[in-house]
Design brief:
The protein is α/β, with parallel strands linked by helices and about 375 residues long. The chain has helices at about 15-25, 40-50, 70-80, 105-125, 175-185, 200-210, 235-245, 260-275, 315-330, 345-350, and strands at about 5-10, 25-30, 35-40, 55-65, 95-100, 140-145, 145-155, 190-195, 255-260, 280-285, 300, 335-340, 355-360, 365-370.
Length: about 375
């Protein structure tokens, strides 16, 4: 039985997320900003939650319909078979988003959707009051250009929360974005990946997890594991499949360095929890003074401070100048730098060969890519 799903992501990661969905053997049906729609078997819902590195969450699509009035929203929601999912005692909170639509008030839409689900379940169960003390079924709606998609969240905590990073530095990079940065750098077994401003180690850890085929969600729980309408054992089987896929035979190695000795302690602990401490070397070093290891091919991937939460603007400008000189001496290594600083290229000293727009949380950033790392 095919089911319809949607994986959400930060803006700019749709391409990487779509490729991950393809790799799972699922069929993509639509891609819009921050969302990739796809179909698969119920087992693929569990596999998607456990294996997708760039997704923020996986949602099960219950239905789609057009609505330009509250009446249409109510009737469209009520027509869906909620009794196939939600029991008499279960909780079903509602949240959602509206973009470029006639129905723009999210709070009003939440109220209408909730009333419609209550009305449907009341007619099926013969009760008017729901105690909502059982399993939580988080309902989400998304309205874009007057088309409503009503879904159930299957992830719970955002998928960027892998479980290996309970502690982080002052400006942590989200794990899903770190994974996308690694994908973009095309990691290879015989090419060292070095993050010289590593902080809590996220980029290096995500790189090692990718190269050893460690599923990001194998050690964390998911909301849908309590959903009784799903086939029994699908998450157990998906976890067993993911664990069997781990391959430590790769010769890949990652470096993570930073000037902050304290944060390096967190990075080492995170790598241990992620199971990749044997593939990542963390050490103290100033990014402005790093030297290329002899006879090694390599790639630099980093997210240096850009004045939003760490360092003053003048300090950031000086850092970028010094990084530009130090990284240029690493030629012919390729360099990938994520920054939101509007004048990054001016202070770094070179125009990037390619720039990709991304977001670090709510902060718009550019990924500056240097393929020919030589002035």
């Amino acid at each position: 039985m095919k089911i319809q799903m949607v994986a959400t992501c930060m803006f700019g990661l749709e391409r990487y997320l779509g490729e991950e969905i393809d790799a799972l053997g699922c069929k993509r049906t639509e891609t819009i900003d921050g969302r990739v729609y796809f179909e698969g078997e119920p087992e693929d819902l569990a596999r998607a939650n456990i294996n997708l590195r760039c997704a923020e969450r996986v949602l099960l699509c219950i239905g789609r319909f057009e609505a330009r009035t509250f009446t249409e929203l109510f009737e469209g929601t009520k027509a869906l078979p909620w009794e196939n999912y939600i029991g008499k005692k279960d909780a079903f909170p509602v949240k959602g988003h509206s973009v470029k639509s006639t129905l723009f008030s999210v709070s009003d839409c939440q109220s209408i959707v909730k009333k419609a689900v209550v009305d449907r379940l009341s007619s099926k169960y013969g009760i008017r009051w729901f105690e909502e003390t059982g399993v939580t079924y988080q309902i989400e709606f998304f309205i874009i250009k007057d088309v409503v998609t009503v879904m159930l969240d299957t992830s719970g905590l955002g998928l960027h929360k892998r479980g290996y990073r309970p502690a982080a530095g002052a400006a942590p990079l989200r794990e899903t974005l770190a994974a996308a940065l690694v994908y973009n750098s095309r990691p290879r077994e015989n090419v060292l990946l070095w993050d010289p401003t590593c902080g809590s180690g996220t980029i290096a850890i995500e790189a090692a997890m990718i190269m050893t085929k460690r599923a990001p969600g194998v050690n964390r729980p998911f909301l849908a594991e309590k959903y009784e309408f799903l086939p029994a054992g699908i998450f157990l089987r998906a976890r067993e499949e993911a664990k069997a896929a781990v391959d430590d035979s790769t010769g890949f190695e990652a470096y993570g360095s930073d000037v902050d000795k304290n944060v390096l302690g967190f990075a080492r602990e995170n790598a241990e929890r992620a199971g990749v401490a044997h593939k990542v070397k963390f050490f103290e070093a100033d990014a402005r003074k790093i030297k290329k290891p002899e006879d090694r091919r390599g790639t630099i991937v980093c997210n240096p401070p850009y004045g939003e939460r760490m360092m003053s603007e003048r300090e950031v400008q000086a850092l970028y100048r010094d990084m530009g000189r130090a990284f240029d001496a690493m030629a012919p290594w390729q360099v990938y730098i994520l920054s939101s600083y509007f004048d990054f290229e001016k202070y770094y000293g070179r125009r990037a060969d390619k720039v990709r727009k991304l977001y670090n949380g709510m902060i718009p950033c550019n990924l500056y890519q240097y393929f020919k790392n030589k002035i």
